[in-house]
């Protein structure tokens, strides 16, 4: 991993706005962004709604939260968490400066 290590991940206003839309009709739950081993490139992103743990990094905006566990944090240092709505589908995406390569679907990467 590189010098980006000291930078926390960022969440775009577009991602927080989408979280607000999703959480508008129910309980407000944080979006967890984690990294685990696997996928076609060695590591894969796990993006899901979850509860906050005591040791999570919590990123807040627009009344919404994105949480990252301490094990995943070095892999996501300096990354940008965004939301995209394109012809092929709408999804949360991660622009990760630590990834040396990624698969075509964007959910798997290597360092």
Automatic annotation (TrEMBL):
Example of a GO MF term: 4 iron, 4 sulfur cluster binding
Pfam families per UniProt: Fe-S_biosyn (PF01521)
Signal peptide as annotated in the record: none
Domain Core: 10-106
InterPro entries linked: ATAP (IPR016092), ATAP_core_dom (IPR000361), FeS_cluster_insertion_CS (IPR017870), HesB-like_dom_sf (IPR035903)
Example GO biological process: iron-sulfur cluster assembly
PROSITE patterns xref list: HESB
Database matches in PANTHER family: IRON-SULFUR CLUSTER ASSEMBLY 2 HOMOLOG, MITOCHONDRIAL
Name under which the protein is recorded: Iron-sulfur cluster assembly accessory protein
Organism: Paracoccus litorisediminis
Lineage, uppermost ranks: Bacteria, Pseudomonadati, Pseudomonadota, Alphaproteobacteria, Rhodobacterales
């Amino acid at each position: 991993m590189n010098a980006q290590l000291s930078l926390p991940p960022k969440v775009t206003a577009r991602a927080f706005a989408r979280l607000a839309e999703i959480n508008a009709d129910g309980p407000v739950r944080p979006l967890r962004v984690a990294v685990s081993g696997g996928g076609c490139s060695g590591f894969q992103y796990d993006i899901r709604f979850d509860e906050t743990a005591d040791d999570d990094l919590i990123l807040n905006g627009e009344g919404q939260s994105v949480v990252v566990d301490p094990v995943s944090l070095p892999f996501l240092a300096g990354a940008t968490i965004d939301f995209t709505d394109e012809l092929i589908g709408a999804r949360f995406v991660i622009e990760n400066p630590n990834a040396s390569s990624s698969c075509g679907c964007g959910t798997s990467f290597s360092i």
